[in-house]
Amino acid sequence: MATDFNELFDEWSSSYDETVAGHDPEYNEVFRLYSHILEEVSNKSKGNVIEFGVGTGNLTEKLLNSGKQVYGVEPSAGMRKVAKEKLPDLILKEGDFLNFPHPTETTDTIVSTYAFHHLTDEEKSAAIKQYSLILNDNGKIVFADTVFADITAKNNMIISAESKGYHRLANDLKTEFYTTIPVLKEIFESHGFTVSFTQKNDFVWIIEAIKQRSV
Ligand SMILES: C[S@@+](CC[C@H](N)C(=O)[O-])C[C@H]1O[C@@H](n2cnc3c(N)ncnc32)[C@H](O)[C@@H]1O
């Protein structure tokens, strides 16, 4: 759950932007094309947007610069502080994917980058169910996150990270809730979305889901 990770992200908040710029070799591939990935998520979004796991506000900035209204949700106080320093006018609430204060306006798009893997698959399903009720007809969910084609691909990536001596990365892959495309496809479709997946680097895919109906 969100609070399990708050301490880690509070600590990481001051150096996070250096990591995404490629200063940590273990995470180089994870963040390869970071800015382009965020740009794509922003381009696929429309109207009133809820963003989960705002972090230091890098996606938020792109959304705001392209004229979207953003309602940010972020559990880590450290991350919220850095984001508010960059974007003082941003509406930014304490909350997480499952428990958050709802905006008063209707919602056209729900976005998140590099964060959905903090939920177990069961929690992911509960979140998507909730979003199907919040989103307007033809509303969208646009996520970018580490996902694997199947469980073999995930296990091979853990072996590859270990063989390179990337022990922090290998440990993350083993202990966080990185899932597979078939699992995500089933989750989105069971809650009335059509979904497509586009790979951006060896880890990250863009997940674009369009609401067909509330189930
Ligand atoms: C790797 S950072 C990504 C930040 C930003 N979205 C980006 O793309 O750079 C993950 C963010 O997700 C947040 N987070 C962790 N667990 C969460 C949860 N359950 N719900 C929402 N956000 C969460 C963390 O506090 C952190 O800010």
Automatic annotation (TrEMBL):
Enzyme class: transferase
GO process annotations (BP): methylation
Positions of S-adenosyl-L-methionine binding: G53, E74, D96
Domain Methyltransferase stretches: 49-139
Record's keyword annotation contains Transferase: yes
GO MF terms held by the record: S-adenosylmethionine-dependent methyltransferase activity
InterPro entries documented for this protein: Methyltransf_25, SAM-dependent_MTases_sf, Uncharacterised_MeTfrase_YrrT
EC number in record: 2.1.1.-
The entry's keywords: Methyltransferase, S-adenosyl-L-methionine, Transferase
Task performed by this protein: Could be a S-adenosyl-L-methionine-dependent methyltransferase.
PANTHER family listed in its UniProt record: TRANS-ACONITATE 2-METHYLTRANSFERASE-RELATED
Family statement: Belongs to the methyltransferase superfamily. YrrT family.
Protein name: Uncharacterized methyltransferase KHA91_20205
Organism of derivation: Lederbergia citrea
